[in-house]
Amino acid sequence: MVLAFSVEPARAEPRPSHWLRQHSSLEWVIGVAAFRSALGQDAHAPGFDTFAGGGELSAGLDVYSGLGIVANGRVLAGSQAGNHYLEGLADVGLQLRVTESVRLRGGPTAGRCTLGEDSAVMVGGFFAGSIDLFALGPGRLSTTLGVRLDVDSMLGGRSLLPDRSLSFALGLGVRY
């Protein structure tokens, strides 16, 4: 009588904390430089354009094979025609992790901006990408370079803010 036994190596299920660490990303863009300009011939604010600087924080979670969701927030401040400009945007969108070091994002945005005494609610959309430049030690921590394009409508602005605007931003930060 011959008995055959098949032995397979034991496999342990990954711990939830390990899975979360592998499928999530956190980016803090410490330095953002942005340029926002009116789209078209705006009757409210002809010639509107401003340079602004600030920061941005993004948290992403891969749901399926590099495709995930991302939540983001940013604050920019600057000056336009002698008036203080302040912008705060938040968004939730989709994130595609192209490689371990390249991510693409897009989705709707909403927020608020002020220019002097004028203020408006901003709604629109964004497309962004980031790439890791170099690792900071043996773990996942690295420096990152980000680029972002926003197209927004400014609702409720009276005289200084345009109806529609476009923003282009570059940033440098860290990712985990």
Topology:
Blueprint: H1 16-23, E1 24-38, E2 49-64, E3 67-80, E4 83-99, E5 102-115, E6 118-135, E7 142-155, E8 164-175
Antiparallel strand pairs: 1-2, 1-8, 2-3, 3-4, 4-5, 5-6, 6-7, 7-8
Please compute the radius of gyration using only Cα atoms. 22 Å
Question: What is the number of strand segments?
Answer: 8
Q: Work out the strand percent.
A: over 45%
CATH architecture group name: Beta Barrel
Biggest sheet record: 8 strands, antiparallel, barrel
Description of the structure:
The protein is mainly beta. The protein has one domain (16-175): Porin (Beta Barrel), CATH 2.40.160.20. 5% of the residues lie in helices and 68% in strands. It has 1 helix and 8 strands; from the N terminus they run H-E-E-E-E-E-E-E-E. It has one helix at residues 16-23; strands at residues 24-38, 49-64, 67-80, 83-99, 102-115, 118-135, 142-155, 164-175. The chain has an 8-stranded antiparallel β-barrel. It is elongated. The mean pLDDT is 88.
